[in-house]
Amino acid sequence: MKLLLENWRKYLNEDYEPITTLRIFDFDETIAHTRSETRVTAPDGSTATLGDQKQFEEYMKAAAAKEGIETFDPVRDLQELGYNIDLSDFSIVKDPDEITVVTDILRQFPKNSKTYILTARRGNSIGPIIDYLDEIGIDTRLNDVRVMASQGESKGDVMVAMMKNKVMDDGKSNINRIEYYEDSEKNIADVLAKVCDNKNINDLKPKDFELVIYKVLKFDDGYKLEPITC
Q1: pTM higher than 0.85 for the full model?
Q2: pLDDT in tens for each of the 230 residues of the chain?
Q3: What's the gap between Cα 169 and its chain centre?
Q4: Residues 74, 92: Cα–Cα separation, whole Å
């Protein structure tokens, strides 16, 4: 987590830009649907194949509760207890389908905004994600799109760190709007708790601060966005 936040500070401490809006996009089941699976072998020899985010989160939550683990992302702790958790599918972008209701928005670059892809994957996935974005016509270099891997850590903590990195003379963050595109209920709840309901950053927020979360919902006929606000 420390390295991740240091990378954010590196990006946000570059030459001053009049940035007031952060646009933050998850990757899996937000920008693209992939055929990635997580394969788990527990210490007792039982196995599971987790085919989507919901299955992954439910398994990890149950396993963490069984083992008495309370960390936000229990993967590393479970591995230390002997769980074999194969995340290799997530080092590539496997058989992707573009989710155009999101990528159509991603392709827009409003004035005074900065765009980030914040995936829960591990760091070795960044290159393949950049390659995929280039394949669908989103030039990350030309449009200064930053791709970051949270490695399962709290995205809410990352957003708060980003707000704290540029503070104006009045003590308020220069960020007055965050748009967040995400499918995971766990990550959405975390961001609401860390950004909306966090009294410790009330003095940091500009008076006109907005957090708008667009929850990505999958239906039989495609994907839709559900807005959630503080």
Answers
A1: yes
A2: 444 544 545 554 554 567 999 999 999 999 999 999 999 999 999 999 999 888 999 999 999 999 999 999 999 999 999 999 999 999 999 999 999 999 999 999 999 999 999 998 987 899 999 999 999 999 999 998 999 998 888 999 999 999 998 899 999 999 999 999 999 999 999 999 999 999 999 999 999 999 999 999 999 999 999 999 98
A3: 30
A4: 22
Same domain? For 211 and 107 the reply is yes
Give yes or no: residues 169 and 147 share one domain. yes
Give the sheet arrangement for strand 146-149, strand by strand.
Answer: 146-149, 113-119, 21-25, 177-182, 210-219, 222-229
Q: Rounded distance, CA 195 to CA 136, Å?
A: 32
Same domain, 43 and 123: no
∠ CA(191), CA(7), CA(125), 5° rounding? 80
Considering the domain architecture, whether residues 22 and 129 belong to the same structural domain is answered as yes
- Asked if residue 24 lies in contact with residue 177, where contact means CB atoms within 8 angstroms, the answer is no
